[in-house]
Write a structure and sequence with these properties.
The complex is a heterodimer. Chain A is 73% helix and 3% strand. Chain A is mainly α. The chains are: A mainly alpha, B mainly alpha. At the A-B interface, helix 6, helix 9, helix 11 and helix 13 of A face helix 6, helix 12, helix 14 and helix 16 of B.
């Protein structure tokens, strides 16, 4: 039997009623969101722009953390619960090295060099910790039932939290920052110095990461391992080393995010990592987990949503921000688990 | 290949008899232990002299046993979701919180709009505003509310992959306590709801019996400090949960859960309705979480939102993992041990250690390290828990693919 062109055109996938309903609910939610944003913009444009800039700043930090989730998930399909706590440890390490050891508390030229040095050091430390956690805890469970590595990751997260508690104490600590307060004003719109620094650090890091993954030999090995570990191994790729390298990259990004977080907000708390990590994970899912560009996009979007909710005149206010983000996480998981840029996956049997 | 019938067929009844016997032995052990503890604390302890008395009160006060029973109730509930059905739930604290707030709403003067108060078989102080129900009814109400919440959470999420499911439950576990914290009109925000009504075991008038110089209240309202009477009530609730999870496991539903846990695809091929069965696991687990919430509220005589944090979900998970996923008795022992260790054992050990050696180490701050290490080490070395079921052990210690290991070996 031959199929005519007309028949092919007619054989579009038939949507189930539920899928249709889901699609319409999704569109309605998006339209509502846009209407809310437009309304707020006309209510107070300058505030809107200021809030958007704040959102972009935190969004860039989330993007760095989200990259760690997405890298690890992409290669071994593990949700690394401990990643948020690694980010928290990054900020704690930064506070100790930068303020306690190097004594950089103002904005002098030496302090800026110290900040750069600290950034590199903290990235190295976090990368090492992530690699160690992988080697000690996750590697042996790679072939185990899925529940086992997940529970292990939760355990590692608790161990990291304990380490943070040990270093930072049980209360929130405030630190002086190298980046001065305030910013460049354009009329009523202020571009904070911290926003500029965050972008100056984040954008090169993202470019570097994408260069490593797309252009280098090691990146090719990573992509091959992500596709099929056994085949990669047969092609002579050292899978264990490749996975370690991926964890190192993720850890370094978390360390950088920790440094930027401390320099932006000037506070450290031992249990901050859990919730911020979950928000960053939401960002990774929003963009499509396993997809690097998606993680960045998701991070920026989540940052914007959080910023808008915190600061807009008709927002729910800061105390509901996390609830909003987690609600987005749940809605996404339910309606569009593959995210914006991800491809729908069929679970392997 | 011979076509003989497999020999297993001949022994199903025998095997279930064995299981029943095994459980019966445990059950009588549970009852005897519970009665012994009660007799010890109510009758013997006051006569044992001050030395023993102080030691016992320091190291194992009845209050800490009561709290441990709350954990047992919730851990047994979580065991149904994680241990039986194999769905990782990282937000069990949500049900605990819902249960607690149900108790807060239905057993206190908090709902001022109901004035004069609504009393139903309650032993609360009369002529107050608010809803005052008998606590058994509150248990049922909280359980049902949580079961519904479990279904509402589960229905859209259960078709997700297992790791996504863990994340969604985690999100719920974060959202629900935040709602309780932020929606101040309904929950009184961070100030919480306190005090709760006095609990009476039975809805009838007060009656007490004098046995051996001790007055035992049979149905008098229990104040916040009637620890030993509360102990009896909590033991009954815990026993109910254990009983339900044991019986349900032997039935059709329980076997379906185990089948799903072991191989979802195979189970669905055998005609197990996946969604409905998973939802049932969620609902039953959540029901017990709700009971635990009410019991916790009664134990503390108050409900505060900051008590419901992520750590609770993880500690419950540690209890289930430590005791042996799927084995109710193991989970119970794990819960008792971990809860006691957390609430009394570790601080007390820290105090003794510090006075002995003149150090100043904050031992309770190490519980993150200890619980994290428990989870990691158990997963690495004894995935089936301390008291494993044979069946669980077989699943979790499944032989890994040997080809890959050879390849790994060649590489290293």
């Amino acid at each position: 039997m031959t199929i005519t062109a007309v028949e092919v055109a007619d054989s579009r996938p038939v949507l189930l009623r539920r899928e249709k309903a889901e699609r319409w609910v999704g569109i309605a939610l998006l339209v509502g969101l846009v209407a809310w944003l437009v309304w707020n913009f006309f209510a107070s444009p300058t505030q809107w722009i200021n809030v958007a800039l704040d959102g972009l700043r935190i969004g860039a930090i989330y993007a760095l953390v989200a990259l760690g989730y997405t890298l690890v998930y992409g290669i071994i399909e593990l949700i690394n619960f401990a990643h948020g706590d690694l980010f928290m440890l990054g900020s704690v390490f930064c506070s100790i090295i930068l303020v306690n050891w190097l004594g950089a508390t103002s904005g002098s030229a030496k302090d800026w060099i110290d900040l750069l040095l600290t950034l590199v050091l903290v990235m190295a430390i976090c990368a090492t910790m992530n690699v160690t956690a992988e080697a000690v805890a996750y590697r042996r469970l790679r072939r185990a039932p899925k529940l086992a590595p997940l529970i292990t990751a939760v355990g590692v997260s608790f161990i990291f939290q304990w380490f943070g508690l040990l270093l930072n104490g049980s209360t929130q600590k405030n630190w002086p920052t190298v980046i001065p307060q305030g910013g460049i004003s354009f009329g009523e719109v202020t571009l904070d110095y911290s926003t500029i620094v965050v972008f100056l650090v984040t954008i090169p890091l993202l470019l570097l990461l994408s260069w490593i993954v797309q252009r280098t030999r090691q990146g090719k090995a990573m992509r091959a391992t992500a596709q099929d570990q056994d085949a990669a191994r047969l092609m002579g790729i050292n899978v264990n080393r490749t996975i370690s390298f991926t964890f190192a990259l993720g850890g370094a990004m978390a360390g950088a995010a920790g440094v930027l977080f401390l320099e932006t907000f000037g506070t450290t708390r031992y249990d901050a990592g859990f919730q911020l990590g979950l928000i960053a994970f939401t960002a990774a899912v929003l963009g499509g987990i396993g997809n690097l560009q998606g993680a960045v996009l998701g991070g920026v979007l989540i940052g914007l949503i959080q910023g808008f909710n915190d600061g807009l005149p008709y927002g729910l206010g800061q105390k509901w921000s996390q609830t909003v983000v987690f609600t987005i996480l749940i809605l996404l998981m339910v309606f569009k688990p593959e995210g914006i840029l991800g491809k729908p996956t069929i679970e392997k049997v | 290949m011979s076509l003989r019938a497999p020999e297993v067929v001949s022994s199903p009844t025998k095997k279930s008899d064995l299981v029943a016997n095994h459980n019966r032995r445990w059950a009588s052990g549970f009852v005897i232990a519970a009665v012994l503890v009660w007799v010890f604390y109510t009758f013997l302890l006051p006569h044992l002299g001050s030395g023993v008395n102080t030691t016992v009160r320091q190291w194992m006060p009845l209050n800490s046993i009561n709290e441990a029973l709350v954990w047992v109730i919730c851990a047994v509930g979580l065991n149904i979701v994680v241990g039986y059905a194999g769905l990782l739930d990282l937000g069990f604290v949500a049900f605990w919180a819902i249960g607690g707030y149900t108790a807060g709403w239905l057993m206190s003067t908090f709902i001022q709009a109901v004035n004069p108060g609504f009393y139903f078989l309650s032993s609360a102080i009369p002529n107050q505003p608010g809803i005052h129900l008998n606590w058994w009814l509150v248990l049922v109400a909280a359980g049902c509310l949580c079961a519904m919440a479990g279904i509402v959470i589960g229905a859209p999420t259960l078709r997700l992959k297992s790791d996504y499911l863990a994340l969604v439950t985690l999100g719920f576990g974060e959202i629900i306590p935040q709602i309780f914290l932020n929606a101040e009109t309904f929950t009184n925000g961070a100030k919480g709801i306190a005090p709760l009504d006095n609990v009476a075991p039975l809805p009838f008038g007060p009656a007490s019996v004098a046995v051996g110089g001790q007055t035992i209240k049979i149905s008098a309202p229990l104040g916040p400090f009637d620890v030993s009477a509360k102990y009896v009530l909590f033991v009954i609730v815990a026993a109910f949960c254990v009983f339900v999870s044991l019986r349900i496991r032997e039935g059709r539903l329980g076997r379906a859960w185990l089948a799903i846990r072991e191989d979802e695809l195979a189970a669905s091929m055998m005609g197990v309705p996946l969604m409905r069965t998973k939802l049932a696991a969620y609902a039953v687990g959540a029901f017990m979480g709700g009971l635990g919430g009410v019991v916790y509220a009664v134990h503390n005589n108050s409900v505060f939102p900051d008590r419901f944090n992520f750590a609770i979900s993880i500690i419950l998970l540690a209890m289930v993992v430590l005791g042996g996923m799927g084995n109710v008795w193991g989970v119970m022992i794990g819960a008792l041990a971990v809860a006691w260790f957390n609430s009394t054992g570790l601080p007390q050990f820290g105090d003794s250690f510090n006075t002995q050696f003149g150090t100043n180490i904050n031992f309770p701050s190490y519980n993150f390290l200890i619980f994290g290490s428990i989870l990691v080490l158990m997963m690495l070395f004894r995935r089936e828990g301390l008291f494993p079921e044979t069946r669980t052990r077989q699943v979790l210690q499944e032989a890994e693919r040997s080809d890959d290991e050879e390849l790994d070996g060649g590489e290293a």
